[in-house]
Design goal:
The structure is a single chain. The protein is mainly α and 152 residues long. Helices cover 66% and strands 11% of the residues. The protein has a 3-stranded antiparallel β-sheet. β2 and β3 form a beta hairpin. The two termini are 33 Å apart.
Length: 152
């Protein structure tokens, strides 16, 4: 990994994880995006569609396509939100609950294997560094608006 940028390491690692998840999801004729959506939906009360995007880190258009495909496969049902008539609640069907359990199992298996194979102090260091990188990004310490405008 010598001479690799932090960005490269993050992207290539996430791409490997995404590929692995998509391979597992394909066993059930599904996708990683569908699996993450299933995990993000409250199995008891449902979840407002507007809350799913931010929860999953997805753009609205991508989420709309994912939800449409999920509805067509019989994984979810949409209903009016009784607390806010303008929004829609996403509920899991029985098949959706079954697939949610499968998705959770895939994620937990990955998590457990990583925790078994990597020493706890190394894993804690990784998580701490990842959190700090997120904080740097979220606090705009890497690129400010002024820097972006100056580059134009």
């Amino acid at each position: 990994m010598k001479d690799k940028t932090i960005d490269y390491v993050l992207r290539s690692t996430w791409m490997a994880v995404a590929k692995m998840y998509n391979e597992q999801a394909s066993v059930k004729n599904s996708t990683m995006a569908t699996g993450f959506a299933l995990i993000s939906i409250d199995p008891e009360t449902g979840t407002p569609s507007t809350a799913l995007g931010p929860k999953m880190g997805m753009e609205a258009t991508s989420l709309s396509r994912t939800l449409k495909a999920m509805e067509e496969k019989g994984l979810i049902e949409r209903s009016r939100n009784p607390e806010d008539g303008r929004s829609v609640l996403i509920h899991l069907t029985d098949y959706g609950r079954e697939m949610r359990d499968f998705s959770k199992h895939v994620v937990k298996t990955f998590d457990n294997v990583v925790k078994t194979e990597i020493a706890p102090e190394k894993l804690n260091n990784f998580l701490e560094v990842a959190q700090q990188i997120n904080e740097l990004i979220n606090s705009k310490k890497i690129y400010t608006k002024e820097q972006a405008l100056a580059k134009k």
